[in-house]
Amino acid sequence: MEMRGRRVNTGGFELHVEEAGQGNPPIIFLHPAASDHTFFAPQVEAFSATHRVVTFDQRGFGASGEADGQYQPADLADDVAWLCDHLEVERPVVVGCSMGGGIAVEFAARHPDVPCGIVVLNRSVLANPAQDSTIRQLAEMLRGPSAAEAVEMLVNAQIGPLDPPELGDEYRSTAMSTRPHVLAAVQEAFTDWDGEAALAAVRVPTLFTFSRTPGKYADLDRIKELCPQAVIGHTVGAGHFENRSVPDQLNPMIKRFLEVHVMP
Predict the structure, then answer these.
(1) Residue 109 belongs to some domain of the structure
(2) Which domain holds residue 108?
(3) How far is CA 110 from CA 73, 136, 241, in A?
């Protein structure tokens, strides 16, 4: 697998983009917060054999430039639409994990004619006031002298015993190198996001996957109520980043979703 990397100028900042493979539908992967384009390496390797795949560092993350405090879900979703136009990526499937999953939903809601499907990994998008309060506190820490402590708290919350040991080291490294004020801005922006309204506006085939007890993580009936076409799957023995802890389960799930719901 040969990755083709380059930087593209949006007119306000640069995005670091990498591509591999060819074939339709194209697949765009959206990394979680405190990560970068390398996060989906197992999926890029698996799907680039039959699809054009695109990964990129989202604004403010990795090698991409900052965007003057503009980190609302709508801003991040519009970046995906801009990339599709700039790279001539037609009717992609957009796969996002955690924060990236929220962006995938917002993208499909704001740009309904662009994607042909979305895949949302471990992101419920439903309102969760208690969790939002915790995230706001974390964002405040990220803006102050306790930023390093806040990043460590974030890493410990995301990485657990079901994740491969090397993933913990990798995620900690990318998290520690992420600009704290960017991470704070993104985290805070999503606490104000109306994910339910966005999900209700999605019209394309949609796959949600979850790796934890449904009652703890999402109201699955509510997801189906908002998005009747949603397919919901569960991985077994996976951590929050299920694409990295159980790619042997997740990759076939995505492949089958494409075969049955996107490419029939």
Answers:
(1) yes
(2) 4-125+194-262
(3) 10, 25, 26
Which range has the worst mean pLDDT, 93-102, 120-129, 143-152?
120-129
Tokens of 1: 């697998």
Does residue 160 lie in a domain region?
Answer: no
The enclosing domain of 88 has a CATH number of: 3.40.50.1820
Residue-wise pLDDT tens digits, 175-221: 999 999 999 999 999 999 999 999 999 999 999 999 975 555 678 99
Structure tokens given for 38: 């390398």
In the chain, the number of structural domains is 1
Strands 4-9 and 14-20 turn out to be antiparallel
Take residue 170 and report the two structure tokens written for it.
């990798």
> Is the pLDDT assigned to residue 68 strictly greater than 80?
yes
Examine residue 242 and state whether it is found in any structural domain, yes or no. Answer: yes
Instruction: Give dist(CA 239, CA 162) in Å, integer.
Output: 5
244 lies in some domain:
yes
Contact 20, 2 (CB under 8 A): yes
Residue from 239, 63, 95, 102 nearest 167 by CA: 239
Give percent of the chain above pLDDT 70: 97
Whether the upstream peptide bond of residue 25 has omega within 30° of 0, thus cis, is: yes
Antiparallel, parallel or unpaired: β 53-56 and 27-30:
parallel
DSSP letter at 165 equals H
